Amino_oxidase domain-containing protein
Amino acid sequence: MSSVKVDKGFRLVIIGAGPTAFGMLHRIYSLIAEGIISKEDIQIIVLEKEDEVGGLARSVTDEKGFTWDLGVHVLGVSKYPEFEKVINSVVNKWNKVRRSAKADLAHLFKSDNSCSNYVPYPVQHSIPYFPPSIRQKCINELKDLQGLPVNCSNFAEYSANIFGNTLLDIFIRPYNRKSQETVYTSAANVVIGKESGITVFVSVWTVELEEMNAFWAWNRIPNIDLSSIELHCGRSRQELESDLRSSMACFR
């Protein structure tokens, strides 16, 4: 906004009083404080349909005393220093929760111990957990991709060029395209525990990976450090999980 000339009488309407609106207001008043724009030259009005500000960052308490978080309500580590600076200046005390997210790869492990079918998320960092043959195949593909120009016109090509076809086939495509869920019905003629499930497929993005562009993926999907992957491949699952617990990131 500092590159935009603000003439006297400039009027700005911000629709919605959520985090983005407050981020914009913070930036505007920072520019005023820096003398880049004059407070007298700009009029601002914020329109919010609710009785409270906050948007999806709000929490509301119902008549029974239960508090509902309207949005995700967690922050990870941001690569934007200004965002970190501002958010830390307005929140005095953080509730830190260790991130514990895992993906079900039972189709790879086929273990009777259900816990052994899960690997830490993001899956591309958990290649050392994979069965040996699949693990080596992923590593070979990643080595072949090293130094090659990344040419992609869609998300499927991006995934194949960055992570390799094996990882694309065993996780990225099925995860992003559809997830299988079993829905149980309470109908009188259906017995829970027998033929009680109706299998439905829920599309994550509602379109195939080939129909999605890849512009968003560069900053949203964690990349792979091949040397780190290879370093951890000689370790047992127990050792890998121990390392994970000591380095586990936190949500705030």
